[in-house]
């Protein structure tokens, strides 16, 4: 699996509201589509190709870590699958694409505006390390633009085509291949295609509205104690927020109308916004002394979330330094259902920066920092909340949490889903670093009963146990990913994630004797073990453990570990030569996490 990180978008609910951009110290997190709506998504997890129409080739849903759509006939001259609406005009189609074989004269491609099986725009991966953006009209191919880049079989790539009027743009892994003007095809469906090739396809999404994707830029390398200076803001967009939305500003007042000219407060807007509505939060610092709460029962719906979104081009910072350290003093408490929070910073709360007690919420492109408990935590609202109402199906995506620290050093993690959570909670493309305790904490305990399984995908945990200013508290556990507690078995899933130089273990079962799935992960130079699993029936596949510095102990894995793994038992395996060098990371244009080591994109 190519860990760009997240070269595959394992869809939970890709957000429909504006995405934020991160810019500082050379880091850019840009939106793929500003103020976009998701028109179509396909992850093939149900094993079905319903809604797709085949033309040539041998197609089936197979397992490649998770369910994917595979075209397996490498000799087929034209193998295609089409989906969507023939009337679609302006949109972005994106898919994860993995060439399995790539014959001479062949290609693997993504299609947009298909009016027939031989007329469409195509972004094609070609033999000889080339990518082309093409217009195909009745089978005649016009090359609109091309780029030289590595194209390897067995590697995942994220392909995206944006069609906006006569402007056609293609990207691979967030980097622009070409932007061209062509008016030959004005509308049509999406498609997947191979020619004299075989390939896997996954996570197909279509979004409408907004602007052309912004190319990715990379970070300067975070060293052992990088300065956490990244701040999110939305990308400039030609689309303007609607006048019917509610507006919040640092100088807003609770009784104000909530217009751009007369902004209100976030606490007030939360009580007024209707399902499907959006609260736009203007930039600046909001000095708060009380928790901002989305109350239970204040809900959106599955088809019409309630949205809190940073105003385009601006950075809202909610500062709770006036609070004392106390479990009651959180920053933002999301206790309702079907909310979508995008592009804000929450800092210095007396407890959690963001607390999620509701279900079916999305927290996207946020930063939680310098809070006095875990930066973002999912847990039940109150001690008497029945288990059926524990928070479930929340997605935390493309977000960062760092330098959270409590006074005793025992509880402040970057991200946590612990003590009391339901099923279906997912962390994806998330970065946790320099927290006083753990990067992730999935602790469960006997007096509450087992929590629901949590999924962590395409994420990064580094330097936890040491704050950015060098502070260490010996009470902290200091793990990258802490996956249990008190001998209660919970079947968590951790995929395509990295643990780097954390103060104790990289990945640890922490007394979870369940059947976790630990696959395609990389663990480097953690102080004790890179992988530490002392009990359970866990399954390990394609994991890699490396040591480039002295110290540390041999990995320990109890359960089903086959030869696809390279654990550390005193020497590095052959894959470790790829993973030496300084760590750097950034978010790609579409929110994927890109990690490099020694200037090389990490591949697993």
Automatic annotation (TrEMBL):
Protein name: DUF1080 domain-containing protein
UniProt xrefs under Pfam families: 3keto-disac_hyd (PF06439)
Annotated keywords: Calcium, Lyase, Metal-binding, Secreted, Signal
UniProt keyword annotation of Lyase present: yes
Entry GO MF terms: carbon-oxygen lyase activity, acting on polysaccharides; hydrolase activity; metal ion binding
Region (Disordered), start-end ranges: 207-262
Gene3D superfamilies: Exo-inulinase, domain 1, Single-stranded right-handed beta-helix, Pectin lyase-like
Required co-factors: Ca(2+)
Composition-biased stretches (Low complexity): 207-244
GO annotation, cellular component aspect: extracellular region
Main localization (coarse): secreted
UniProt signal peptide: 1-36
Subcellular location: Secreted
Domain 3-keto-alpha-glucoside-1,2-lyase/3-keto-2-hydroxy-glucal hydratase residue range list: 40-206
Family, per entry: Belongs to the polysaccharide lyase 9 family.
């Amino acid at each position: 699996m190519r860990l760009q990180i997240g070269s595959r978008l394992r869809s939970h609910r890709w957000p429909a509201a504006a995405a934020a951009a991160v810019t500082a110290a050379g880091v850019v997190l840009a939106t793929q589509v500003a103020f976009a709506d998701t028109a179509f998504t396909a992850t093939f997890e149900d094993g079905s190709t319903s809604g797709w129409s085949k033309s040539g080739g041998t197609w089936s849903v197979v397992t490649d870590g998770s369910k994917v759509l595979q075209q397996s006939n490498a000799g087929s001259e034209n193998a295609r699958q089409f989906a969507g609406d023939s009337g679609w005009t302006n949109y972005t189609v994106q898919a994860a694409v993995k060439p399995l074989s790539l014959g001479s004269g062949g290609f693997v491609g993504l299609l947009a505006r298909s009016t027939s099986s031989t007329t469409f725009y195509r972004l094609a991966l070609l033999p000889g390390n080339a990518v082309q953006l093409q217009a195909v009209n009745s089978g005649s191919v016009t090359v609109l633009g091309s780029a030289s880049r590595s194209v390897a079989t067995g590697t995942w790539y994220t392909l995206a085509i944006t069609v906006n009027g006569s402007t056609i743009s293609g990207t691979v892994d967030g980097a622009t291949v070409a932007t061209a003007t062509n008016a030959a095809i004005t509308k049509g469906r999406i498609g997947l295609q191979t020619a004299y090739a075989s390939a896997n396809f996954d996570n197909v999404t279509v979004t409408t509205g907004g602007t052309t994707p912004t190319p990715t830029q990379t970070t300067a390398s975070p060293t052992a104690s990088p300065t956490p200076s990244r701040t999110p803001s939305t990308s400039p967009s030609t689309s303007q927020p609607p006048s019917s939305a509610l507006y919040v500003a640092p100088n807003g007042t609770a009784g104000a109308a909530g217009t751009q000219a007369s902004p209100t407060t976030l606490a007030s807007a939360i009580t007024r916004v209707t399902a499907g509505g959006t609260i736009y939060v203007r930039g600046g610092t909001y000095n708060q002394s009380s928790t901002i709460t989305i109350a239970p029962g204040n809900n959106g719906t599955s088809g019409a979330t309630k949205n809190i979104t940073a105003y385009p081009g601006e950075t809202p910072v909610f500062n709770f330094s006036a609070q004392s350290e106390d479990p009651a003093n959180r920053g933002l408490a999301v206790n309702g259902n079907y909310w979508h929070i995008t592009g804000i910073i929450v800092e210095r709360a007396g407890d959690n920066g963001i607390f999620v007690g509701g279900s079916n919420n999305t927290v996207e492109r946020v930063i939680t920092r310098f809070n006095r408990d875990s930066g973002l935590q999912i847990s039940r609202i109150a001690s008497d909340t029945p288990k059926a109402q524990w928070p479930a199906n929340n997605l935390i995506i493309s977000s960062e949490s760092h330098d959270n620290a409590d006074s005793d050093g025992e509880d402040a993690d970057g991200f946590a889903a612990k003590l009391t959570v339901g099923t279906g909670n997912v962390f994806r493309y998330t970065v946790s670093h320099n927290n006083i305790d753990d990067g992730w904490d999935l602790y469960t305990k006997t007096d509450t009963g087992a929590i629901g399984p949590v999924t962590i995908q395409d994420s990064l945990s580094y330097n936890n146990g040491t704050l950015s200013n060098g502070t260490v508290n010996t009470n902290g556990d200091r793990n990258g990913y802490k996956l249990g507690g008190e001998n209660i078995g919970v079947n968590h899933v951790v995929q395509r994630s990295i643990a780097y130089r954390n103060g104790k273990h990289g990945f640890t079962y922490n007394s979870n004797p369940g059947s976790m799935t630990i696959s395609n992960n990389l663990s480097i130079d953690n102080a004790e073990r890179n992988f530490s699993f002392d009990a359970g029936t866990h399954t390990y596949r394609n994991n890699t453990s490396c040591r480039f510095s002295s110290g540390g102990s041999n990995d320990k894995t109890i359960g089903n570990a086959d030869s696809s793994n390279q654990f550390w038992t005193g020497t590095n395996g052959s894959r470790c030569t790829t993973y030496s060098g300084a760590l750097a990371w950034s978010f790609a244009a579409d929110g994927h996490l890109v990690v490099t080591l020694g200037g090389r994109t990490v591949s697993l």
